[in-house]
Every structure is written in structure tokens, then in C-alpha cells.
Amino acid sequence: MKAHRTAFLALICLAAPFAHRFLNAQATPDADDVTKEITGEIRDLRQVPDAQRGARTTEIALKIRALPAGGDKRKLATGFASYSTESDPGAAALQAVTTTLSQAIKEAPISMRNNRPGRPYMLLAKLVRFEGMTTDLKGPEIDRAQEILAQEEAEIQKTDFTLDALKGQKVQLSDLRGKVVVVNFWATWCPPCRKEMPDLDALHARFARQGLVVLSITQEDTAKVTPFISDMGYKSTVLFDPEGKVSDSFHVDDLPRNFIFDREGKLVAQSVNMLTERQLLAKLAKAGIH
Q: Residue 179 sits in which domain range?
């Protein structure tokens, strides 16, 4: 009897670690499930009211930061950084996103290809350069990303263009010296583009007497753009870049993008993504519009 009891206790002890792991597995969500949950939250971020956007953005950033290190985490952090700039979450929330992206890159770095860093590094560099965020990430990849952005800015600074406007006239950028110019790249199919257009138009009307000009450039055709603009009641100048040559010269790799030139034609500000009225006002102040 004692031998049977001893054998039974030994079996319990042997099984205990497996039972412990099983119970923990039942209590702890699978990493893939957590990732899917966060992906859904990012996708739904566009539906979150602007007043709640900052808190929700920070919450998601912290959830991503807590994920196990790896390529999936880095991809999620990169995609989230793109989504988080589609509104105005506030500087603190955007810094939380930037810190999360930095951490994800440090945990799962990517080697450069053809002397060009991957998208995570380029996006991080844009957040730092265009939005005033900070990062403690160091290394040749982030240094090269910053160098590329500086080179692109120098090329944009030298760019001039002449495009056809919706109303038929031609518009040349260099003819607008003496005015503050917002060069805006957009498309009818782009939700953040549509969201920022009323603010662009309102500020154009508000500061037109101070010399503000908004040039909204699209690669779409007049048949698609004309009814859209009419329905929206958009009054700012719409220009057509059918072959995307101007878009390429401005190194536009995502929509929307905004570039602000002062009265001397100097590029003084640009955006990672869409701009709200508050953000636009802050960037226009760099060009002397108040």
C-alpha cells in the first residue's frame, strides 16, 4: 500500500510542471492572438473621435512595446507609426509611438540594402526630422536615413514645376515667390487626404490676404476629381500631375504629404502624413503666417 502511494505521489510530481505550463497557457493569451487584437485596434483607430485619439494611441503604443521582440513586432510598430500620424494625437502620444518604433527596431534590426535603410528607419527619421520627436536609436542605418532626408530636402528645394489646374490655367511654383505656399499631395481614394482638405481650405480662406496659397496636386484624372471637388466644395487650387513626375521630384512615397514654402521660396516645413488645423498653423508659423 505504501509503495502504491509513493508511486502515485511520484507521478503527481512528474506531471506538475506540465500541468503548470498547461494552466499558464490557458490563462495567458497566445502572442499571435494579442498581435491580431492590436492589429484590429490599429485598423479601428480611424473611427476613434479626435478627442480620444491621443489616449488610444498611447495605449496601443504601450501594448506593442510589451510584445516579444522580433520581426512581427517591428512590422506592427512600423504600420502603427504610419496610422498614428493620420490625425493629431498630440506630442506625448506621438512620442510614445516613436519610442515604441525605436525599441522594436533595436530588438530586431534590419541591414541596409544598396546603401538604403528599410522603411522602419526611414519612418523613424521622418518622425524626428518633420515632427520634432526624439529617439535614442543609434547606428549607421538611422544616420543614413537622416542623410537621405536631408538630400531629398535639398532636391525639393531646387524643384520647380508647371501644372494644369482644374479650372484650365497653368500654375508655376516659382511664379508664387512672395507668397507662402502649401504644396499638398492627395487622392480621392485616400481617407486622411479627405479628412485634412477642409482644414487646408479653411486656412487658405483665412490667410489668403497674408499671401497663403494652397496647391493640391493629384495624379488622378479630371473625370474623377471634378465631381469630388464639386461635392466637397473645395476652393483651393487643384493641380494635375498625371505621370507623377512632380510627386517623384518631391519624393512622395505615401499620401497625403504637405510641403510648406516661405515667401522666399524656402522649404521650411513638411509632414509625415495628414495635418490638422492646429498642426498646419504650427507649421505655417515657420513661414511667417500667424
A: 159-287
